[in-house]
Design a protein that fits this description.
The chain is mostly helical. The protein has one domain. The chain is built from twelve helices and no strands. The chain is globular.
Length: about 300
């Protein structure tokens, strides 16, 4: 494959990650709407999201399977990656919706996605993939500065609930980091999104059955729950895992900081959380970090980086 073709593939992957982040930005608001209009717990919402996403992805995989030629042999290393993706998704979703329930959409999303780039960059370095580039570190510093402004504005006086929500969001960040690092190293022929969602749902099933799975009856809650499983789940993760095959994990993690920015804007619009000037400045810094990375992608061929 020629260098121009590689560069085009890298740019397309970058845009896929951007679109995924924008879709994910609607997850917190969607989960809050479902929780407000039903008696579903954070565990229920996480399970439904993974299960619905898995069903949709399985149907899509079945439709497109006839076009695929050849077979991909899944050895132990790839199987281990897939197991980590499933476990990471299960932990990420459960911790995230629990954090939303206690600390609100903005704080949960900002903390989870703010810590993730640090954990991913650290994980990549510890796993022997080299130190992040100067451009990546610069973008990370700018992005985290923006997040600091946003968190400072959004935190308020929530007390213990916010502290617990922040801890849960930190656990969500760890799960997200595992998904990013492990999923980025899975071969293209393996349906990593499908396996991850199906595996994550299976891992949560014993806990859901033990707690007693609630079934939503409110039409709005049901519709939003279906949306949660379709758009910010099946579609967004499909875009993301396709994108990270040509976008390094640390770069992808910074780009997905668009998610907390989107979530904060939606929380402001629909949950009456007002953005102060400092929060607006933080959002602009996030956009600047993402724009800087994209301009860097325009001028180079992709660096395919593995994960766990």
């Amino acid at each position: 494959m020629s260098t121009p073709t590689l560069a085009a593939t890298s740019r397309r992957g970058f845009l896929f990650v951007v679109l995924a982040a924008l879709c994910w930005g609607t997850s917190g608001l969607s989960g809050q709407v479902v929780a407000d209009r039903s008696d579903l717990s954070a565990l229920d919402i996480a399970w439904y999201r993974l299960a619905i996403g898995a069903v949709v992805l399985l149907a899509a995989w079945g439709v497109t399977s006839r076009r695929r030629t050849g077979r991909v042999v899944v050895g132990r290393p790839v199987a281990a990656r897939l197991l980590l993706v499933g476990a990471g998704l299960a932990g990420y979703q459960l911790a995230y919706f629990s954090a939303v329930d206690r600390a609100g959409v903005s704080i949960a999303t900002l903390v989870a996605l703010g810590l993730a780039p640090l954990l991913i960059a650290l994980g990549a370095a510890l796993l022997g993939h080299g130190r992040p580039s100067a451009a990546t570190l610069t973008a990370l510093v700018v992005a985290l500065a923006g997040l600091t402004l946003l968190v400072g504005v959004s935190a308020g006086d929530g007390g213990t609930a916010v502290l617990l929500g922040t801890l849960l969001a930190s656990g969500s960040a760890l799960g997200y980091a595992v998904v990013t690092l492990a999923g980025g190293g899975v071969p293209a022929g393996v349906p990593v999104t499908l396996v991850g969602f199906g595996g994550g749902a299976l891992l949560l099933t014993p806990a859901v059955l033990a707690a007693g799975l609630s079934v939503p009856t409110d039409p709005t809650a049901l519709a939003v729950l279906l949306y949660l499983g379709l758009v910010p789940s099946a579609l967004a993760y499909g875009l993301f895992f396709t994108g990270v095959r040509t976008v390094p994990g640390p770069v992808a993690s910074i780009v997905t900081l668009l998610e907390p920015l989107t979530a904060t804007v939606l929380a402001t619009a629909f949950l009456d959380e007002r953005l102060a000037p400092a929060a607006v400045a933080g959002g602009l810094l996030l956009l600047a970090a993402v724009a800087g990375l994209y301009l860097r992608e325009l001028g180079r061929a992709p660096e395919v980086e593995g994960g766990l």
